[in-house]
């Protein structure tokens, strides 16, 4: 019990003190982006990992959140920070429609429907130029020069999303979500309104993903449809974060977020400038190999299979010594 | 007034009429068995009662109200619990969590739901397995888990779909004892069963069907001696 308290205390101190100690904007940026992915990965995990409704379209909610924030300054003359809450709420409204359409389908058909949904929304954002400025994108002026405010805002968002999801999973809702994942017919005959609770899971997931999107708009100050509605960089990344970290675990997506952002950056910068430039082209290949490795050897992700990982390391250490 | 009334129930799958104009009742506190050869339409009747399938014609009245066209979860909330012939354990949840999840049907707080689940598990002799994952249970345990999950929703009527199939003789006696004890708590039971030892020892009434139609109805002795029933099970020359 006490070891646990110490562990969380140290982790909390690191989280709070990191940007004060590490002053490099580059590393601060990487951690900010990682924390944003903690939010998205955890949200995806609530719907896909716990409720069993695998979404290939989380870019819908991320992009809608980002655009909601972007429209405040461009159309209403208000600060984009209003979009933080509004982005979550508008994402939930969009999620209501997505759920109404896609939850008629089960399993892989649901996944394919969300995949199609993501592409539809991206094309709408490109072509509805009077609202979104189309491919020109939306450019705003950042509120802060320093990265510190952004760091703490996204830290609060990440901690809040994990805490809320943890609370949900320990309540009636959590039991219902997992029952639906395990067997929808059994769940229905246990008195669970499966349609309602799948939508509840989707709405919570969309809310946090939308807030993450709105944060992205505020932080990056520039968005266009190819970035925030991207299948590859948002929808698939959300899945990778969940799978690598561990689906249906509270901390899995958090671990996965740091690993995936770190890996992405390693390749983007050609192993931090140490390797030839062409390496940066290989990041999709590396992601693919990582996913194959994780699915073959750690099907429950790094957090889910932590016991296995520990055992393997203990064994190698013993045989070495 | 009967607890459950099946009135002229008909269910067709395109051209095939699986259940044809079947009517029967289950009274308060009764154990009624539905028997018939394979493919007679027994499970289809269950699936119609809890509305997995929409009815083609007829009506189902539960506690004086028609439940036709209602959603499956609503029917459970009204007080009809069911088990599945092909068991559906929530595999990656513990036995306790399986039952806790269904306790939430009537209870909102987690502590009370867990307490209820432990009560039900004890009743079903599953308490010693409560921390195991449901997928690690053998078939006998899975069948009892099905019953426990249905009981946790506090049904007035329990539909048991071949609970005794695949059990060994000692498990069979346990199952008979469990069904009796369930009835003593005031729950009426409608069961589909092939194992005659179970059917004959605990049923108050038996409803026999073949090819989707009623062929006999009555007490166990009456049905066992009925010509049409013997013919359906053993062929014409034994009748």
In short, what is this structure?
Chain A is mainly alpha-helical and 321 residues long.
Output the CATH class name of chain A. Answer: Mainly Alpha
Question: Into how many domains do the coordinates of chain A divide?
Answer: 1
Shape of chain A: globular
Extended strand count of chain A = 2
Overall pLDDT level of chain A = 92
Radius of gyration of chain A: 20 Å
Q: What can you tell me about this protein's structure?
A:
- The complex is a heterodimer of chains A (321) and B (239).
- By secondary structure, chain A is mainly α.
- Chain A has one domain (24-320): Orthogonal Bundle (ABC transporter involved in vitamin B12 uptake, BtuC).
- Chain A contains 16 helices and 2 strands.
- Chain A has helices at 2-21, 25-50, 59-76, 82-102, 107-127, 129-132, 148-169, 172-182, 184-189, 194-220, 225-228, 231-245, 252-268, 283-297, 301-304, 306-320, and strands spanning 138-139, 222-223.
- Chain A has a two-stranded antiparallel ribbon.
- In chain A, helix 3 (59-76) packs across helix 10 (194-220).
- The longest helix of chain A has 27 residues, at 194-220.
- Chain A is globular and about 65 Å long.
- Chain A starts with a helix and ends with a helix.
- The mean pLDDT of chain A is 92.
- Chain B is α/β, with parallel strands linked by helices and 239 residues long.
- Chain B is built from 9 helices and 10 strands.
- In chain B, strand 4 (57-62) and strand 5 (65-66) form a beta hairpin.
- Chain B is globular and about 55 Å long.
- Classes of the chains: A mainly alpha (321), B alpha/beta (239).
- The A-B interface holds A 170-172, 175-176, 178-179, 182-183, 185-194 and B 50, 52, 71-73, 76-77, 81-82, 84, 88-93, 97, 100-102, 104-105, 108, 110, 113, 149-150, 153.
